Structures are given as structure tokens and as C-alpha cells.
Here is the input.
Amino acid sequence: MSKQGKPAKKTKATMAAGADKYALYRLSVQDPEHEVSMFLRFYKDAYGRLPTSLREDFCAAFAVCCEWVRRGSDRTAVGVDLDSEPLAYGRAHYLPTLTPDQRARVRLLQQDVLQTRERAEVVAAQNYSFFLFKQRAQLLAYFKSVHRSLADEGLLVFDMMGGSAMYANDVVEGRQVARPTPADKQNNPPFRYVWHQERYNPITADALFHIHFRFPDGSAIDNAFTYDWRLWTLPELLELLEEAGFSARHIYWETTDQDGNPSGNYRRATEGRPDPAWLCYVVAQK
Ligand SMILES: C[S@@+](CC[C@H](N)C(=O)[O-])C[C@H]1O[C@@H](n2cnc3c(N)ncnc32)[C@H](O)[C@@H]1O
Here is the structure.
């Protein structure tokens, strides 16, 4: 009842209101199993053996750390993120999916990646997080700090995207994403993931992106995540990595299948196709 004694107005329970934005993010843009397989392969290509220690920079809810420790009883992972909210989400939702032994091999640090000195064989920075460093000096300082903290046989891995489609304002792309049906069999229809590039400034290479989620009942979570980034280019990154002291630097470019479609496999390459939108991995050896 309201203060005036009238029945309180009911707010409509929308799908957006009941949604968990971190779960939707994970379903839309994360594939920790694939990421860990890639890191292991890149490391084996570089050093001829498999690594045990991972540092996940910009780890948010540290889904990759959790997958890493699942993939071997000798594997340890450290997640580093500035923000307590996604770390708390991962503690509440992802850590409980691990066994006690796996859980004991994950450590979390609420810290600036520029300050951390955590040593590891693999340092991974996924989902383009380094784009948030807009100044050359900042990005160089990050690469130098990773270089210092890597083990002697150490590898920095991050993903990278680009292409002419990114040099534009108001680009909106969406796709339907299926959700697993919950155990209680409640209706759990697919939602729409929307990647929105609001603007790009060719003078600074700054770009502003948002992730929105849209639901079949017409409700939405607008700006669930917002990214204010600088769109670096691959040659800039390769030069900075060399300057930071990395002895070898490789681009793993996506191969195509017989029909010319992206295959999901990545190989070292020195020449890539200038598709309007492309993704690749950058791998740097200490
Ligand atoms: C784009 S999200 C990446 C999430 C995750 N790595 C993934 O693959 O989806 C960027 C994350 O970086 C964190 N972050 C931003 N600046 C940071 C810094 N200087 N040091 C540590 N974490 C930072 C944010 O809190 C956010 O969780």
C-alpha cells in the first residue's frame, strides 16, 4: 500500500528487469574454452611445452581463470581487475562451479594492471581491453610492465580487432543469442546482443562503443557496457611490443574454409585480408 492508503502501483516485471547482464555478456562475447585452447597452443608454438601459470589482466568476472584451472591439476591463475563489481560477480557465480582444489588455484587481485607485478608464464588481456590506454606512453608502460613480470619463458597474448567498418559513426550490429533452459524449465527465450559503435574520431582514433541487450517482450538493457577506446593499429602494436623488449611478435590471423568463410582457426601470418571487420590474436614472446 502507498502512503495515502491506495494500493501501490505495480511495476511491470520485464525480461530486462530480471536479466543478469554479466550472464548475458558471457553468453554473447566470451568463449573461455576456446581462449584457453588458443593460449596453450600459442605457448607450445613458442616454447615447445605447455605452461602452468596464467595471469588474466582486465579479468572482470575472471571466466578465463576458471577455465584455465579446470584444464589441469597443476595450473594456477591470477585475475587482475580494478573494479570490485565484476570480481564479486565471478566470486558469487563462477568460483562455485569449480572444485575446492580448482578454487584454491585461483587468486584475485583488485589492482591496476599497470601496478601489478604478478609473475606468470602467460599474461592474457582479452576482449580488446588494452584499447582503454589512449596514450602511446601508457600502452608502452603496460607492455613494459608485462614484459618485466613474465617468466623467462613468457608470453603476452591479446585479441585485436579492426577493419574499415570501425572507422564510422553509428554502426549497429545485432544477433540473437540462445540461453540455456534453466532447470526449472521456465521460459528462457533468446535475447538480442547489440554492438553499437556510436562514434569514431579519425583525428585521435578514439571510438565509443556500447553493448545493449534487447528482449522479446520489447524491454532492453541499454548501455549495459560502454567502452571509450582508442583504435590502435597492428603495426603500432607490433612496434610498441618491440620497444617494450619482446623478442618475437606474431599475429595469428583467422584462416578461411573452402568457401572463403572464417574457419575459427588461427595461424601465424604476415599478410592478412583487408576485410571490413577482422579479428586476430597478437602474441609476444619475452
Ligand atoms: C572490456 S572489460 C574486459 C573483460 C574480460 N577481460 C573479457 O574478456 O570479457 C575491461 C575490464 O578492465 C577493467 N579495467 C579497466 N582499467 C583497468 C586497469 N587499469 N587495471 C585493471 N583493470 C582495469 C575494467 O574494470 C573491466 O572489468
